Amino acid sequence: MSPPEDVPPPRWVTAHGPEHSRWYVDRFRRLAAEGADLAGEARLMDALLPARSRVLDAGCGPGRVGAELHARGHTVVGADVDPILIEAAVADHPGPTWIVADLVTLDLAAAGVSVPFDGAVVAGNVMPYLAPGTGARALASIARHLRPDAPIAVGFGLDRGYSLDAFDADVVLADLRVENRFATWDLRAWTPSSGFAVSVLRTPADE
After folding, report:
1. How many domains, in total, are found in the chain?
2. pLDDT on residue 193
């Protein structure tokens, strides 16, 4: 899916080249081989959803979160703008559906995925890596693929050029609301001095 000309490329694309993407893939393969706990985001998402839900892994990277959700019985579709990361997800994690797509212009129906999702996870610092000024559009695009009153779990570091105030403004512009906020994926309490934020958003409920 090619984005319209008025959509700038994500910072992941402009700040890094293919070698960084391959390094990223190799890093998580190595961590998995060493037995590192890479399932924290999936554990939280699993707790937010009923069993056997449909989950959108938005900005899925090489697929570690979506793969864990699939192993827990959920139906997973992962989308990422980087074809190298999607190639790794397909190779390493059969089961979920992996799609190359820009979150700002996400249109999964065009890729043959038309059933609404029960929730979405946006992990791995996806939001700071979007092009500046596109956060609200990306959140709204993700939300359009979800059922009413669905959770979206979003986590990112606050030292990457995208502030929590900017994120909260984007949440409002996307017609979403912040339901809960934590400092880590294992639900440690949020404080103003926290360097990381995990926000659980909700799509609007049916009228």
Report:
1. 1
2. 96
